[in-house]
Amino acid sequence: MSYPVHVHCNNLGIPGNVETAVATMEAAQGLPMHLAHIQFYGYGAEGTRGFSSAASTLIAAFKKHRNITMDVGQVLFGQTVTISGDVQAQYSRRHDATPNKWVAWDAECEGGGGVVPYRYQPKSFVNSLQWLIGLEIFLLADDPWRLFFTTDHPNGGPFTRYPQLLRLLMDYDYRLACMAELHPEAVAMSLLKDIKKEFSLYEIAIMTRTAAAQMLGLPDRGHLCPDAIADIAVYTPHANKETQFSHAHLVFKNGICVVQDGVVQTRTHGTTQTLAVSYEPSIKRDLQAYYDQFYNLHLDNFKVGDVSFKQTDGQRFVGHQLGKPYFAGV
After folding, report:
1. pLDDT tens, position by position, 25-51
2. d(C-alpha 170, C-alpha 242), whole Å
């Protein structure tokens, strides 16, 4: 199985861009497609401020197009940093830098990027609505096999804040308490206060483990069946889910206990995954024609030669032969 094409839609962060996201789903024509950090494309243009939640419109299209998978890109309040290869967008946001330190760079071969620190604040109308839209998407989708758990690290929030997001999804009363601190106009425009769904631990396990492994085409991960890679986290149940998921009781890596109650027990090497990717050679002709028409560089400028790993350690270098395409829900 192979990973579906990973698409960043146009018009990121622009009010009304939900139309772009829906059109992108339709343009896939039933082929597998993954849409990245979809919260940033769940925006309508209604209301006196011209900015509103379009999560319900987005999810209606998501349910219609079963070939589509998405990750959320949830915004969480507090300090983070935004990183993007869109140099102009990052440069245009330099005045929002908090603290006032930022960097943008442009390079040859059509490369570059920008880093702008940012602090999401609950009293901000825009930030409040972004927080609300992400949670609306999570809770309205009702399909943990096709919707994945992310904060678009670090742009929406660092991955170290995942325990708080898990609590938001699993605790309706906690969501309500958090909403009381938000900009009131944003709350009034949101459906979130009326969505009482709470994710079960089973749904969280699917969303954060099993479904992700399936989409990546890694059959030896994301489950506890025989022959699976024993990467396992064990948590102590707690009424406060943020507390529960902030500290694992045990962490196993390849069946070896590496952490117990926050204390490192064993230090192990990580694993490098390598892919053997096949393609139809004739596509180079079409790509060459496209580059000749629209680019000022030759296609060969972008060519990456074959990489040969000389290491023979099968524990640290694992190869995967990609086969048939992944189809969501299969």
Report:
1. 999 999 999 999 999 999 999 999 999
2. 10
